[in-house]
Design brief:
This protein is mainly alpha-helical. The protein folds into two domains: 83 residues, DNA polymerase beta, N-terminal domain-like (DNA polymerase, domain 1, Orthogonal Bundle); 66 residues, DNA polymerase, domain 1 (Orthogonal Bundle). It is built from nine helices and no strands. The chain is 64% helix and 0% strand.
């Protein structure tokens, strides 16, 4: 196995493990694990497949994972991998004290939906899309009240 193959296999396995820890889509987790296994067993350098435009011939590698492999081959890393490695900022971690928001839900909001601030979170709640996420156990109204209270407390000297 080449260095690129083993590095990518390890990255995809780490991504799968991190996604599993955060209760992400099980099909996505399985896709990363299958890709990691295929890359670890690949007899040829993955870069050769990429040069031929044949990444999709590797079992378990579709359009999304192909783009991540090409990103790795051109930059030496995968942005999604780097995001999963980094912990949440402390102010975002504090959202776990808001009603109905668990750490896995907050992780998903931050890394996958780009929710970075309380106003961003408030906008998402107002759109009624937050309730479509698995693991959210609070009404929009209760969460909006808690967000407003936190924002008000932040403004009070």
């Amino acid at each position: 196995m080449t260095d690129a193959n083993s590095t990518l296999a390890a990255m995809f396995q780490t991504m799968a493990d991190s996604l599993a820890a955060h209760y992400a889509n099980p099909y996505r987790i399985r896709a990363y694990r299958r890709a990691a296994k295929s890359l670890s067993r690949l007899p040829e350098d993955v870069a050769a497949f990429a040069r031929r435009g044949a990444l999709d011939q590797i079992p378990g590698i579709g359009r999304d994972l192909s783009s991540k492999i090409r990103e790795f081959l051109s930059t030496g890393t995968i942005q999604a991998y780097e995001e999963l490695k980094h912990p949440l900022p402390p102010d975002v971690v504090s959202w776990t004290s808001l009603p109905g928001l668990s750490e896995p839900v907050i992780h998903h909001l931050y890394f996958w939906l780009g929710i970075r601030t309380l106003p961003d979170l408030e906008t998402l709640v107002r759109s009624h899309l937050l309730r479509t996420l698995p693991g959210v156990t609070v009404s929009d109204e209760a969460l909006l009240d808690a967000i407003r209270a936190r924002q008000k407390a932040a403004l009070t000297p």
